[in-house]
Amino acid sequence: MLQPDLTYQLLRNLTSPVVAITSQRNGKENGMISDAAVRASIVPTVPRLSVYIHKFNYSHDMIYETGRFAMHLLHTKQSDIVHRLGFFSGRDQNKLAGIPHHKGKTGVPVLDECFAHFECEVANVMDTGSSTLFLGDVVAVGCGAAAGLEPKGELMTATYFRSNMPAEWRSEYEAKLKDAQTLGEELSRHIEPVVWKMPR
Ligand SMILES: Cc1cc2nc3c(=O)[nH]c(=O)nc-3n(C[C@H](O)[C@H](O)[C@H](O)COP(=O)(O)O)c2cc1C
Fold first, then answer.
1. Which atom of ligand 1 lies closest to the CA of 95?
2. Which residue's alpha carbon is at the smallest distance from atom 7 of ligand 1?
3. What is the count of structural domains for the chain?
4. Which CATH number covers residue 33?
5. What integer pLDDT is reported at residue 192 of this predicted model?
6. What is the per-residue pLDDT across 89-114, written as a single tens digit (0 to 9) for each?
């Protein structure tokens, strides 16, 4: 029989580096955090990545309705960005207001500081019930506002963030995770087949 808590702890070994996902819809910018992102192509001329985003997050509909997002790998000195973008929703505030960023080539916000960033156009989606898996074609790449493509600093992994976040954030983090798990539990049971059409 499955032991849910132990199974979840084992599955945590499958989390990705911590990424910041930004989007823009009708002039409104937003950003969130995920640790469920992965390279989705080994072909250098067809660069792709994928990420799972919960349907109840504000970013979800912004990305679904525009077909665009930017994914940023972060470095280990950027825990404050994880807190700002990953602990509060953009429904209630402009989370990017205090974070230096610029408009990328596709119009989505790109963080000036990061390990590396990838601007994407959605190529396909898969419904998972509680979230959507977005497959993105990488259409522009960089290391934030820095010139060139040489990342600086140490990549922020999910384990690094969980082990090194300030103690006063931990209960908030655990509570948010619990809420998302509760919301996700019901939604996860119903999966719809979806055909993706780029919104225009
Ligand atoms: C370390 C970390 C990992 C997270 N991973 C995910 C994830 O994989 N998918 C997701 O939808 N939300 C994830 N979240 C939660 C969202 O970042 C969070 O709910 C955020 O407030 C959503 O913002 P929005 O409502 O403005 O889109 C994660 C948060 C943290 C701190």
1. 26
2. 34
3. 1
4. 2.30.110.10
5. 96
6. 999 899 999 999 999 999 999 999 99
